[in-house]
Amino acid sequence: MDQPSLALAWTLLAAGLVLIAAEFLLPTVFIGFVGAAVSFAGIWLSAAGGVGSCLLFCLVFVAGLAAEFLLFRRLLRATPITNRADNQGAAVPAASGFALYVGRQARALTALAPSGAVEIDGARVEAFSADGFVERGAAVIVTEAAAGRVTVRLVR
How far apart (Å, rounded) are the C-alpha atoms in residues 56 and 54? Predict the structure, then answer.
């Protein structure tokens, strides 16, 4: 096959890899699909150069994807988007964080059926009722602490 068609194939492969890389920074799904389609078009055009040429293009595509993945995985660690996505200091507090509530009295902010929310020392905490259904506003006592919630019983 003549040289310009392989040049077009290389250009399409490179453009597709650039679009896939852009998908890492601008997660839209659409850009990634277009990048994959453009890359596959380049690989398809490379088949005109023979099996060896097509295999080379496939190898470059896979190596390029792997390099992008590893590069962006390393680069995105320090970005604010990654810092918000990790679970450190957010979503589910450790059980030790709630251990100080064991033995304290609380008030049911929602009906516990058997799960809901209670207020302990002004803090809203997810709770599980060992007594089953508990009405909103009822006084409860914290009996144990688990990751992300406490277990409560009705005050009798």
Answer: 5
Most confident range (mean pLDDT) of 89-98, 133-142, 144-153 is 133-142
CATH code for the domain of 115: 2.40.50.140
Q: Cα dist. 31→16, 20, 96 in Å?
A: 9, 7, 44
Same domain (yes/no): 105, 72: no
The residue whose two tokens read 């792997």 is: 66
* Residue 34 scores a pLDDT above 70: yes
Question: Which bin fits 74, alpha (ψ -120 to 50), beta or left (φ > 0)?
Answer: alpha
Count of domains in the chain?
2
End-of-domain residue from the set 27, 53, 85:
85
CA–CA separation, 33 and 22 (whole Å): 11
pTM: 0.49
Q: Which residue range(s) make up the domain with 103?
A: 95-154
Q: Can you list the positions of beta strands (E) in the chain?
A: 105-108, 115-120, 123-129, 139-146, 149-154
